[in-house]
Write a structure and sequence with these properties.
- The structure is a single chain.
- This protein is mainly beta.
- The chain is built from 6 helices and 42 strands.
- Strand 20 (327-329) and strand 21 form a beta hairpin.
- Mean pLDDT is 91; it is low at 1-55.
Length: 637
């Protein structure tokens, strides 16, 4: 029965001792790793000291005047904060933060009923480890519909709508642990989101085989980009690391370390080679269609056996130097390029040869390798300028190296050619790098970002925990030139940069938006018209409060509940003025949410003590913003 109620540059000097130490280590490491192979092909290196920016083509001027717009959107992973951060490029002004795997006091993400539905069972987690943001495709170009990103900490993949810059879907991948590498199908469109699960676990992981590492395995996972459902999984040998897809929609490839199948560090270092696992998407789909799969535990997701021993011809294992890390597809669609990490080389796999590999026309998996240039110590990730050049981060050398792909292939075939164009120092220990539009066929070669793991001596001291350092480099001319340092927090892992015209955003919500459709449906069940009604509905100890907001008023300036009631407040912002966002915050109840123009938001909490508790708009909205408030009257139980 229900009833209605109406932190100065450091005083000291740059740590030159550390730089000399790294240089010495690099020389020793190169000698020990390269061995008799020497440093053929390196030739006379050009080292560019990034002391100052100089004219270098059209990209050198990065000033964006007040009131002007940046040329690009830059999407940075938030690392251990669990969020996505939006920068304007080239200004590097931080524009917005999108909560994804974290909870957000400002927007109410993780508190509101709408966002709890998105988080699902994983709403109980307050942490995330956001690694790899990627933007959806149509025919190899970014289409600006969605951004996808993974959470290594809690084995999740999320989707962000780029018309409203809000997380709208999330899935926890079954049977695996720690989603690391993430990439999207590039053609004909993004039908699949592919996710690497990194760590080996027993299958099923129900306690029966915890002491038998021979039963441990991991999987490569395909998620439907439209429904965000896990469609199938492929069990593999080794730990999956990073990955990428081709430009035809047929193949994907992932670096794998720990071919030994070990569970300790010494064990994972025994073999001289590990591999790149190549996946045939068509063959996997065929295996699923023919019922050639199993299911594991409580999950009904089809699991295809892609291990070497299975012989299903859905995967191929290409030997590469030990413990490879990054794998990036060249923007001309020719190569998968795997970074050696513990080898000074990267391995170039020619994608056009993969048909022959799977059809058995090649005598050895290594026949698809067409180049293996030596670049320096600790190669981790590679990006591209669309002009035939690749740029690889060297973690140990603290450098980015620019090299020419076709010259590297010619050198591999025995020609005496220098493929390295330049090396530039970065500060310090770079991980991922990313150039403008370099994950699409439209790479324009203007700016490159080196996402460095350390920032020692670059910024004002802020105590023992230092920021990381993202450096913007001009790559529009023949030489790389450092343009800008940007401090970042909690180790952003990766970034993706697209032109501003590739995204079409909404400035005001549409009332029929699916983001809050479930809340609208609940109101309809209660007989409430959200745009006009300001009512309180009592249903036992559940109280549902519906109100509108129009600056500077809430539709209800007070409502009464009883101690112990479960209270749901639903607010519809009737303002139609762009940027006129309201908030709802209940004092001393840990309740806060954002309601943007024409949006409906709701939050549920317990009124756990008697008394008067004010609620107020906590997003500045009007000259009388301070007066936009009301009372929740809680009667004793």
């Amino acid at each position: 029965m229900s009833d209605k109620q109406t932190g100065d540059k450091l005083t000291g000097t740059v740590n030159q001792g550390r730089r000399r130490f790294l240089a010495g280590s690099a020389a020793v490491g190169a000698a020990s790793v390269a061995g008799a192979a020497g440093m053929a092909g390196v030739g006379a290196l050009t080292h560019s000291q990034p002391a100052k920016a100089q004219a270098n083509g059209s990209a050198a001027n990065i000033h964006v005047a007040p009131g002007e717009l940046d040329e690009y959107y830059g999407f940075w992973s938030g690392g251990k904060s669990g969020e996505v951060r939006i920068y304007g490029v080239p200004s590097m002004r931080e524009i917005m933060r999108i909560p994804v795997f974290n909870h957000c006091s400002a927007s109410g993400y993780g508190q509101t009923n709408e966002t709890k539905r998105i988080l699902g069972d994983s709403a109980k987690y307050f942490n995330g480890d956001a690694h790899h943001p990627h933007i959806s495709y149509t025919d190899g170009s970014h289409d600006g519909r969605y951004l996808f990103i993974n959470d290594k900490a809690n084995t999740r993949v999320a989707r962000v709508r780029l018309d409203v810059f809000k997380t709208d879907a999330m899935v926890t991948v079954p049977n695996v642990q720690a989603i690391h590498g993430l990439r999207l199908q590039k053609a004909p469109r993004t039908n699949y989101v592919f996710a690497n699960a990194e760590y080996l676990i027993p299958q099923p992981n129900d306690g029966r085989d915890i002491n038998d590492p021979t039963k441990y395995h991991t999987m490569w996972n395909a998620i439907d980009a439209d429904t965000m459902e896990v469609k199938w999984q492929v069990i593999v040998d080794g730990n999956l690391d990073n990955m990428d897809t081709d430009y035809t929609g047929k193949y994907a490839a992932a670096t794998c370390y720990n071919s030994e199948g070990a569970v300790t560090l010494p064990g994972t270092m025994r073999n001289e080679r590990d591999w790149v696992t190549v996946f045939s998407i068509e063959r996997i789909e065929q295996a699923v269609a023919e019922g050639n799969y199993i299911t594991i535990g409580d999950s009904d997701v089809p699991v295809v056996d892609g291990r070497k021993s299975a012989g299903l011809n859905v995967t191929r294992y290409v030997p590469v130097p030990k413990n490879p890390h990054g794998l990036n597809t060249s923007t001309d669609g020719k190569y998968f390029i795997a970074a050696g990490k513990l080898s000074p080389t990267v391995t170039m796999i020619e994608i056009a040869k993969l048909d022959d590999l799977f059809e058995g026309n090649l005598s050895d998996e290594r026949d698809v390798v067409v180049g293996e240039p030596e670049l320096g110590l600790g190669p981790l990730h590679t990006t591209y300028d669309g002009r035939g050049n690749a740029y690889t981060t060297l973690f140990i050398d603290s450098q980015v190296v620019k090299w020419n792909m076709e010259d590297a292939v010619r050198h591999y075939n025995g020609e005496d050619v220098n493929y390295i164009r330049q090396k530039i120092d970065v500060h310090y220990q770079p991980g991922h790098n990313h150039a403008t539009l370099s994950e699409s066929k439209d790479a324009d070669g203007k700016y490159l970002f080196s996402l460095n793991k350390f920032s020692k001596d670059r910024y004002l001291p802020v105590g023992p925990l230092h920021p990381e350092n993202d450096q913007m480099i001009d790559i529009s001319g023949e030489e790389m030139v450092l343009l800008h340092d940007t401090p970042t927090f909690a180790e952003p892992h990766d970034a993706v940069i697209i032109r501003r015209d590739q995204i079409q955003t909404k400035q005001i919500w549409e009332r029929n938006d699916p983001y809050f459709a479930a809340t609208v449906a609940r109101a309809q069940e209660d007989g409430v018209t959200l745009e006009t009604d300001n009512v309180v509905i009592r249903d036992g100890n559940q109280v549902r409060v519906y109100m509108t907001s129009v600056a500077p008023n809430f539709g209800l300036t007070e409502f009464t509940v009883k101690q112990g009631d479960e209270v749901t407040v639903t607010i519809t912002n009737l303002d139609r003025v762009e940027d006129l966002t309201h908030g709802f915050c209940v004092v001393n109840h840990g309740v806060s949410m954002e309601i943007s123009p024409q949006q409906t938001s709701s939050v549920t909490f317990t009124a756990d003590r008697p008394g008067v508790f004010w609620y107020y708009c906590n997003w500045f909205c009007h000259a009388l913003h301070m007066e936009m408030k009301g009372r929740m009257l809680v009667e004793p139980a």
